[in-house]
Design brief:
Structural class: alpha/beta
Strand content: 25-35%
Helix content: 25-40%
Strand order of the largest sheet: 3-2-1-4-5-7-6
Number of helices: 5
Shape: globular
Largest sheet: 7 strands, mixed
Order of helices and strands: HEHEHEHEHEEE
Radius of gyration: 14 Å
């Protein structure tokens, strides 16, 4: 349920690259693959080697990159430009506000204009501080999760989808 509610926030356009940060065991990754969206590449960045090996075995269609997902721009280089969507399950609440702001800036710079950065969190408030023309909305609340999981969708450029 949680994974599907997160994956539903991805724009249903064709093509492009969807980036997942911190896929863990791949529940959200699998849900992204099952959305019915076609003709896209899915890249997932995971730091835990056990999860990397598990994901590579179970999800051969997904390109798994081993490394610190907070450093996705450095890890992907030029591929970290013009992304269709970014989905993040990274624990951002404990980060200093300036680090959270920098993380969101890097994510917005990597996305096509108006495309979603999706962050799920236990926070009832948006976990990343907005800036300039970045807007946030709650895309979903998953009440079956304890505590409830909030799915936050950030977009730059005033897109309200």
């Amino acid at each position: 349920m949680l994974a599907r509610r997160i994956a539903e926030q991805i724009d249903p356009e064709r093509g492009g690259v969807v980036l997942e940060l911190g896929p863990g065991t791949g529940a959200v990754t699998q849900a992204i693959l099952e959305t019915g969206i076609s003709d896209f590449e899915l890249i997932a960045i995971e730091s835990d080697r056990r999860f990397v090996n598990l994901l590579r075995r179970q999800l051969p269609r997904v390109r798994i990159v081993e490394g610190n997902a907070f450093s996705f721009a450095r890890l992907l280089g030029e591929e970290a430009r013009g992304l269709r969507s970014i989905v993040s399950g990274l624990p951002v609440i404990g980060l200093a506000p300036e680090l959270r702001r920098q993380f969101l800036r890097e994510a917005m710079a990597a996305l096509r204009q108006g495309r979603p950065f999706i962050q799920f969190s236990y926070s009832v408030r948006p976990p990343l501080p907005c800036f300039d023309d970045v807007q946030v909305r709650r895309g979903a609340i998953v009440w079956q999760n304890l505590p409830p999981m909030h799915v936050w969708v950030y977009r730059q450029g005033g897109s309200s989808r």
